[in-house]
Amino acid sequence: MSLAAAHPARSALADTPSPIREPSGSAAALAPDPAAPPLVAFTPPPARTYPRSVETWLEAQIALARQGFSSGSIDGVPGDQSASALRAFQQCRGLAETGQLNDESRAALELDRPPLTLFALTEADLASLQPLAKTWLGKSQQTALAHETALELVAERTHSSPRFIQSLNPSVDWAALTAGTPLSVPDVTREPLLTQAARIEIRLAERLLQARDAAGKLLAHFPVSIARDVEKRPVGELHVTLVIADPDYTFNPATFPESAEAQELGRRLMIPPGPNNPVGVAWIGLDRTGYGLHGTPTPEQVGRTESHGCFRLANWDAHRLLELAWVGLPVTVVP
Predict the structure, then answer these.
(1) What is the C-alpha to C-alpha distance for residues 232 and 301, in angstroms, rounded to an integer?
(2) Virtual torsion, Cα 56, 58, 61, 67, nearest 10 deg
(3) Right CATH for 199-246+281-334 from 3.90.190.20, 2.60.40.2250, 1.20.1070.10, 2.40.440.10
(4) Could you read off the pLDDT of 158-172 as tens digits, one per residue?
(5) How many C-beta atoms lie closer than 10 Å to residue 10's C-beta?
(6) Of residues 95, 121, 122, the one with CA closest to residue 108
(7) Residue 16 has pLDDT above 60, yes or no
């Protein structure tokens, strides 16, 4: 089921006080006087109206995600990636690039609808789940490298931390989740892109990727992981040579010298597509052999851990990048 803009309704509070019990007296004396005013006047809280300015870091992360400024996994907790996304937004709006959610930034960063929505998995969603093999050989024998659990699937579709999704739905038994169960999740639905990128820039020191149009307008901002070894970090001008959604992956033992299994296998394996594929849901090849921009099965680690050489994004950001990329697109990598 797709994300909907509906928000859970607030239950109305009764404004009639309970009868007051006296220690003694007749039944008539105990009965409340219907003409008497209530002991406490109840005024329902005003309904939220939209658009409105964001008030918290959670709302800021959601509003930024809707506009293409990714702060990684949404969790409501400010951090380096959230600050980086906010600085990109501040730059676009001509604000001081502080990365701080100050009054000026709150006023500029608007929500056009409630930050949370109701979401439910379908029977097909649940049927698609598969345990993930522990070995490369086992992975190569699967029909797909799909999500393992309902929680993982929901978290990825809503660009969120699994732990945060659990905190929003404390009564849900994720191991026994059934289709149609309503879940409270961030609403990160974005408007479709109307243009492709004219240039991609990757900043190694800041571990970020930005896409701009021909006029220099920022179209997207994503955190990115870079190569562990400095000599494997290409600097300079590259170009896109291939754009593929849901790619398979060729496992090469030579790429994983730290893996005992890889060395024992001594042969290449074809790993099937899926969100838990080593390159996630997207492969954007570059004109440097073996290098590309791609997704990952571990979005929580993007920008925090390092890769074997490629540029790794959260699956939801890699999927968005597919909409922006085209063969021949210039990619500039700066230190």
Answers:
(1) 19
(2) -80
(3) 2.40.440.10
(4) 999 999 999 999 999
(5) 10
(6) 95
(7) no
